[in-house]
Amino acid sequence: MESIVLIHRIVLCTIAGTFGIVSNIINICVFVKQGLNSSINISFFAMAITDVFRIVAVNWMNLCSSPDMQKFDVPVVFSELMYLTTGWPIGCANRITMFITAFITAERCLCIIVPLKVRKIVTPLRSVVILTIIVILNGLGLVPEYMAAYLDWKIYPSINRTRIGIKFRSNSAENEGIAFTLHAVLMSAALLCVVIFTAVLVVKLNQKTQWRLESTSDDRQRETFKTKDRKTVKMVILVAAVMVVCYTPAVMLSVVSASCPEFNVTGPLASLFHGVWTVVFVLGTVNASVNIFIYYSMSTKYKEDLKQLLQWRYKTL
């Protein structure tokens, strides 16, 4: 199990994470270039920042997982340090990304359902407020865990040394159970919202497409409508599929962690805990890294701005 953990964390996560950091920095630059004066750009910009934070935290986790780290003469048990400094912050970032995606799909639904009123309903200022609330509420979800566990000096009889490691308070089992339950509930709610809003969006787009085809007599205009809507539907389906594939295992494991006290970082099933959660971290890193391909293939505006950005950068070198 340890070898599997090392392969996934140090090799797969590091490769995907390095690409993800670069791709999300590019995304941030493109959205800034386009202007943060629309709800959709603000949301994608916030998602890119969250993904950068998440990938950096994953890479720190990978570094702590390396057997070579413990060879340094420092009084820290890195395998326990990473649990509080990376594990839970990564989970929080995952939730934030999912809720931002849910907000984006909800806003797109309004664009189809009430296209003439959506700009008055979802303004850039309201988008910033909603995104801020998403970050704060998900950040508060970390409170029970950090009330249950903390870093302090411990005696390790196996090496006859004192090191800084993780300690749990007397009410740790209860608080940790609350933390995992909150995490499972929030993850499930966000995933459910993404699926529902995406399904509604796909249905409405198909209805709009059918109406346009029936009400348009010009063959060229009819084909334009058909192609445009088909690409939008494909993008929505792709975003939903990537989200469901990457985060369904995390939701399931959160439920298991909340319902099984032995399944935790220091319990009898600690080895299995680290192994399966490592796979979840890999999937989360992949999800944070592939958005650039979706934007580039589905958005003509993004493609043009990215090419202009790269051309400008090339000329300045």
UniProtKB/TrEMBL annotation:
Localisation per UniProt entry: Membrane
PANTHER family to which the protein is assigned, alphabetical: G-PROTEIN COUPLED RECEPTOR, PYROKININ-1 RECEPTOR
Source lineage: Eukaryota, Metazoa, Spiralia, Lophotrochozoa, Mollusca
This protein's name: Lysophosphatidic acid receptor 1-A-like
Record-linked SUPFAM superfamilies: Family A G protein-coupled receptor-like
InterPro entries: 7TM_GPCR_serpentine_rcpt_Srw, GPCR_Rhodpsn_7TM
GO CC terms in record: membrane
Gene3D superfamilies xrefs: Rhodopsin 7-helix transmembrane proteins (1.20.1070.10)
UniProt keyword list: G-protein coupled receptor, Membrane, Receptor, Transducer, Transmembrane, Transmembrane helix
The organism of origin for this protein: Biomphalaria glabrata
